[in-house]
Amino acid sequence: MLIAAALGAGYWWGAQKSPPTATVTSEKAGKTERKILYYRNPMGLPDTSPVPKKAPDGMDYVPVYEGDEPTAGGPLVKISPDKVQKLGVRTEAAAPRVLTRTVRAVGIVQASERRLYTVAPKFEGWIQKLHVNTTGQAVRKGEPLMDIYSPDLITAQQEYLIAWKGMQSVKDSSPEVQASMHQLMESALQRLRNWDISEADLKQLQKDGKARQYLTLRSQANGVVLEKPAVEGRRFMPGEMLYQIADLSSVWMLAEVFEQELGLIRQGQAVKVHVDAYPDKTFTGTVTFIYPTVTPETRTVKVRIEQSNPGGLLKPAMFAHVEMASTRSGGQALAVPDSAVLDTGARQLVLVQREEGKFEPRSVKLGMRADGYIEVLEGVKAGEKVVVSANFLIDAESNLKAAIGGMGGMDMGIAKPAASKDGEPATLPPPPAKEGKPMGDMPMPPAKEETPAGTQHKGP
After folding, report:
1. Residues 160-166, mean pLDDT to the nearest whole number
2. Is residue 420 situated within a structural domain?
3. Where are the beta strands (DSSP E) in 262-357?
4. Which of 332, 254, 329 is nearest to 295 (CA)?
5. What is the pTM (predicted TM-score) of this model?
6. CATH number, position 345
7. DSSP string covering 147-158, please?
8. Bridge partners for 93 per DSSP
9. Is 414 contained in some domain?
10. Which residue, 135, 286, 364, 441, is the most exposed by fewest CB within 10 angstroms?
11. C-beta of residue 358 within 8 angstroms of C-beta of residue 76
12. Could you tell me how many helices (H) and strands (E) the chain has, helices first?
């Protein structure tokens, strides 16, 4: 009976002790499932080691376990799903888009240089009467501007009249004589034409048959008078400007475009123009010329825009707001939201979502920016999801993890307790007592000896 009781007690004791042993074994087996592939530099340098080692600054190399190794595209940033939700992370797929960017600039209305006319007589004379006597007055082609007196004009008229009368007198003469008189008459007539005497005045001269003391200068174009140095009674010399007339039915707009946006401007591009004087109106024009020089003070380039001016609403020297829409040539381009780009100064990065809670930072090469999107030339493929919200928080989180991971086994400077043989953490030993007396009993340092004046203090 004693033997049977002993056997039963032994069986019961063994049954109670065996499950914990199996659990510990399974726990130990679970802990040893992950395999260390290699050890990486704690400061993020590319060197690795197959065995544990220390960096030159004394820090331990960090183990890299199986499953945590960097992917071919680069290291992964891992964040728990609940933290992703708290950070408000949003993603959007990279996709082809039509990128249209609007370049805005300030412009100044200017009279078209092709529609400027200057009245500058080719002879000497005096102004007898002004028919157009105010600046800004509108004139039409052929309208009289002023009556002038010039001895040269009177002489030319008399020569023409003599040749014309001679032509009439030799009607019955030989063809050679008639041709000679006709050539003389045409020469005198052409001289008057070269001095801008109108055909109507020449016909009147032929009709009257006598030289006129005052001839009329007429406008050569439609427009408005921009400048009028002419006054009645004034003497003028050959080539002196008396009127400047501009046709404002079509005007120029000189827009100042910043040099970094110059690549988006091209000739023939449509332009929208707004002026403060007419906020409800939109004027349209076309880019006709890009000036070849840059203004050093403003770092801008002048762009010439030609546009019609119905009703003469646009006045020279008027300020305007110019909008030039530029669409990327070649159609659609792969683009991501501009909020997805992290610009470090030296390069640009995006965070690509590989899996739930796993993000891969990639360097990208960027192109055109437009409408809140930016073109990606290299680094991302169509369909890949990039982080467009809270990417700065993910970047900060990954930097924090890298900093903590870079500390290695030091764990922020706190030593880890050594494990006991049974797998339980051993109790940290108490700090060793410092030798010597307490702070209260420590002797004071000896006072410095006074150095007599005139003597030099010697060092130890």
Report:
1. 83
2. no
3. 270-275, 278-295, 300-308, 319-327, 333-337, 342-343, 348-355
4. 254
5. 0.57
6. 2.40.420.20
7. EEE-HHHHHHHH
8. 385
9. no
10. 441
11. yes
12. 6, 26
| Residues 168, 171, 177, 183, Cα dihedral to 10° | 50
Judged against a pLDDT cut of 70, whether residue 245 lies above it is answered with yes
User: Which phi and psi angles does 8 have, rounded to 5°?
Assistant: -65, -40
Domain-ending residue, one of 207, 241, 275: 241
Q: How many CB atoms sit inside 10 A of residue 216's CB? A: 18
Residue 441 lies in a domain: no
Beta-bridge partners for 254: 108, 304
Residue 87: φ, ψ to 5°: -75, -15
Do residue 134 and residue 194 come from a single domain?
Answer: yes
pLDDT tens string 37-65: 888 877 656 678 888 988 887 888 888 77
CA-based max dimension of the chain: 178
Residue 319 and residue 211 share a domain: no
Would you place residue 23 in the very low, low, confident or very high pLDDT band (cuts 50, 70, 90)? very low
**261 within 8 A of 103, measured Cβ to Cβ:** yes
- Residue 16's pLDDT is 55
User: Which of 367, 397, 398 has its CA nearest to residue 94?
Assistant: 367
Domain that holds residue 151: 121-241
Residue position matching structure tokens 């109108």: 198
Q: Which residues contact 144 (CB under 8 A, 6 or more apart)?
A: 131, 132, 216, 217, 218, 219
In a domain, 457, yes or no: no
